[in-house]
């Protein structure tokens, strides 16, 4: 049985009328709306605490100036820490709850999908790809780990994978947590149309 959808979603009001009309269309491809510089923020590079702090500060500043104004967050990232990605997602979903539209462009890999999914409405450009894989670690060859430490790290990775897969299935419309985990295990690349068909994005910008 699918879990109930989380109803504590960020506020989202469509200001661009051409975009609002496109959202009612069944076609995945929509006309590119006008993104004003003062409303646009970019999450570029690794998903980590430093990038989170910078982007969240930008969002808080824009919200202070105009609390209900629509903001556009462009996401281009080859991934990073799942924990950092989940922290950003939770901040948008449960704490700040901005009027946020996210746009994936280029690489939107692994944990950066959590940044993309933090938007009330989500889009990708036609040249976007998403890469899904299970959690992994890079070890310093000079350090030794006990069996207990390795078991603890493996457990944490499994929990992070489960949280990640649940979040994608919860935000999507046509995908289950088990299916996401299976795609992660198989190192899956998703195209814009596949993202749209799974309900992970609302449209493709051209």
Fold topology:
Blueprint: H1 17-23, E1 29-30, E2 40-44, H2 49-65, E3 71-77, H3 82-96, E4 100-108, H4 112-116, E5 121-125, E6 130-132, H5 147-171, H6 177-185, E7 188-190, H7 192-197, E8 203-205
Parallel strand pairs: 1-8, 2-3, 3-4, 4-5, 5-8
Antiparallel strand pairs: 6-7
Structure annotation, total helices: 7
Series of secondary-structure elements, N-terminal to C-terminal: HEEHEHEHEEHHEHE
Shape: globular
| Mean pLDDT across all amino acids | 87
Please provide the count of β strands.
Answer: 8
Overview in brief:
It is built from seven helices and eight strands.
Structure, explained:
This protein is of the alpha/beta class. It has 7 helices and 8 strands. It has helices at 17-23, 49-65, 82-96, 112-116, 147-171, 177-185, 192-197, and strands at residues 29-30, 40-44, 71-77, 100-108, 121-125, 130-132, 188-190, 203-205. The strands form 2 sheets. Strands 1-8-5-4-3-2 form a 6-stranded parallel sheet, sandwiched between helices. A two-stranded antiparallel sheet has the order 6-7. Helix 3 (82-96) links the parallel strand 3 (71-77) and strand 4. The N and C termini lie far apart (37 Å).
Question: Keyphrases for this structure?
Answer:
globular; two-stranded antiparallel ribbon; alpha/beta; 206 residues; disordered N terminus; 6-stranded parallel β-sheet; 7 helices
């Amino acid at each position: 049985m699918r879990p109930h959808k989380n109803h504590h979603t960020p506020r989202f009001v469509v200001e661009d009328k051409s975009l609002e009309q496109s959202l009612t269309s069944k076609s995945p491809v929509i006309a590119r709306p006008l993104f004003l510089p003062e409303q646009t923020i970019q999450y570029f590079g690794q998903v980590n605490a430093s990038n989170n702090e910078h982007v969240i500060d930008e969002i808080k500043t824009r919200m202070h100036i105009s609390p209900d104004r629509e903001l556009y967050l462009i996401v281009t990232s080859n991934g990073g820490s799942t924990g950092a990605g989940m922290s950003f997602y939770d901040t948008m979903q449960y704490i700040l709850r901005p009027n946020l539209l996210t746009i994936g462009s280029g690489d939107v890999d692994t944990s950066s999908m959590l940044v993309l999914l933090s938007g009330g409405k989500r889009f990708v450009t036609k040249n976007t790809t998403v890469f899904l894989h299970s959690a992994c670690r890079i070890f310093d060859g000079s350090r030794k780990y006990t069996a207990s430490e390795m078991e603890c790290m493996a457990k944490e990775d499994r929990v992070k994978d489960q949280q990640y897969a649940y979040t994608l299935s919860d935000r999507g419309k046509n995908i289950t947590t088990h299916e996401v985990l299976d795609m992660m295990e198989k190192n899956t690349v998703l195209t814009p149309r596949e993202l749209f068909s799974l309900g992970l994005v609302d449209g493709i910008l051209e």
